[in-house]
Design brief:
Elements (H helix, E strand, L loop, with lengths): L7 E4 L1 H5 L9 H13 L2 E5 L4 H11 L4 E3 L4 E4 L2 E5 L4 H13 L4 E4 L5 E4 L3 H6 L7 E4 L13 E4 L17 E5 L2 E4 L4 H12 L6 E5 L13 E4 L5 H6 L2 E2 L7 H8 L11
Parallel strand pairs: 1-2, 1-12, 2-3, 7-8, 12-13, 13-14
Antiparallel strand pairs: 3-4, 4-5, 6-9, 9-11, 10-11
Helix pairs in contact: 2-8
Length: 267
């Protein structure tokens, strides 16, 4: 009889653990997480959200471990251990090029709701950001005067992206049509760093996701589960595609693979 091994589970939040229609955690997903923990597995969030945003969900749902900030934030055993900005020199170069092309840019200089700009060009071109934000407009603002950049928001239309030739030097996503966001896109590396804290190995990792920003963690040797409501591309990368998350996809997958069985027991 084979012995059930300890697994290291990493769950995306939006659209995976949560119902996108309500923003709330799917009840059967919550039950699955609790049963995995009771069985002796390691369970963590893996999200692109900044720490200050992800922490609200983590605390509410009582997760003890979290990869956040696109892989640059590590919250282990109820403590924030790491939270790194994006590459400073590359970010500054992207900022300079975007401004020279006439686009508005907001820069986040720390892990918070605050963004900085030297004018209202972003507002004029793209409107407000689609999330709670504190805007700080200073005609003398220059990110070169600061020692860290956590994110950039650039009001460049999708069809004009080729003009931003430095775009691919940094991780970027277009969650909202009017603007491009530059942020860490290194969930895979974040999971590997989490394993150094938790004492696990990549071969025992299981990841759950639903969208393009989860592609970074849908890599071997992780076991990759795309929930049934995932985008088609992520499904193409998956080892297994579950039912949609709101149709108990996470719970049914854990049950199917025997992950609710106690670690160390035989089956």
């Amino acid at each position: 009889m084979a012995e059930f091994r300890k697994k290291y589970f990493f769950f995306d939040i939006d659209g995976t653990l949560t119902d996108k229609a309500t923003g709330q955690m799917v009840p059967s997903a919550r039950e699955a997480v609790h049963r995995l923990e009771e069985a002796g597995h390691f369970v963590s969030i893996a999200t692109g959200r900044a720490y200050y945003k992800a922490e609200k969900f983590r605390s509410l749902e009582n997760f003890h471990h979290m990869v956040c900030n696109g892989g640059h934030g590590i919250y282990f055993d109820d403590q924030l251990r790491e939270n790194r900005p994006i590459d400073y020199d590359k970010a500054l170069a992207v900022y300079r090029q975007a401004r020279s092309l006439g686009y508005g840019v907001y820069a986040a200089l720390d892990d918070s709701e605050k963004v900085y700009a030297c004018d209202f060009r972003f507002h004029e071109q793209a409107g407000e950001r689609r999330e709670p934000t504190i805007y700080i407009i200073d005609p003398d603002f220059d990110p070169a005067d600061y020692d860290a950049i956590f994110k950039l928001y650039i009001s460049i239309p999708e069809e004009d992206e080729p003009s931003l030739t430095l775009m691919n030097t940094l991780g970027h996503l277009r969650f909202e049509k009017p603007y491009l966001m530059f942020q860490p896109d290194e969930k895979h590396e974040g999971i590997l760093r989490m394993l150094t804290y938790a004492g696990g190995v990549p071969e025992d990792v299981v990841v759950f996701g639903d969208d393009y920003n989860d592609c970074a963690m849908f890599t071997d040797p992780f076991f990759k589960v795309a929930v049934g409501n995932a985008c088609d591309y992520l499904k193409s990368l998956a080892d297994y595609v579950s039912e949609p998350n709101v149709e108990d996809g996470i719970y049914k997958t854990c049950e199917k693979f025997g992950w609710f069985n106690k670690v160390g027991s035989e089956g």
